[in-house]
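Supplementary Methods, section 5.1.

A reviewer requested that the exact input to the structure prediction be made available. We therefore reproduce it here, unchanged from the version used in the analyses.
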Amino acid sequence: MLLALAEPPERFAARLAWSAFRRRHQARANRCHAARRARRQPVVAGGPPIQPPPGGDLELTDGRWARIAPLLPPQRPPTGRPNHDHRTILAGMLWVARTGSAWRDLPAQFGPWETVHSRYARWRKAGIWQRILDTLDQEVDPATT
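The structure derived from this sequence is encoded token-by-token as follows.
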């Protein structure tokens, strides 16, 4: 647009008209693409959907947390933006697994869904999520018996 300032006024008007047309066209195309993607089956980015343990109860009790906490990486020191604690984030992951809801539907009590999902993806890639599921599947929670 800086080059347009140096052009004659009739050319400047044509360039502005083209720019307005282009913005309208891009907005219309963006709406059409979004509508087409919404009609398609949802595709889960980054791998298979979150899988709960077979037949397992997914409530995060104090006993389960005591068994799972050693499997998790250490919390970062509180520098910069405060981190959400692992227990809250894990409870959010288990909520998604239990309900089968989308990450975006995660209640605010578990923190931002983006944070929960990114930590889930990181833990799944590192194999931590599978160890958590194995721990929940193998051990019987004394609070439920």
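The chain has two domains: 2-39, 62-144. These observations are discussed further in the main text.
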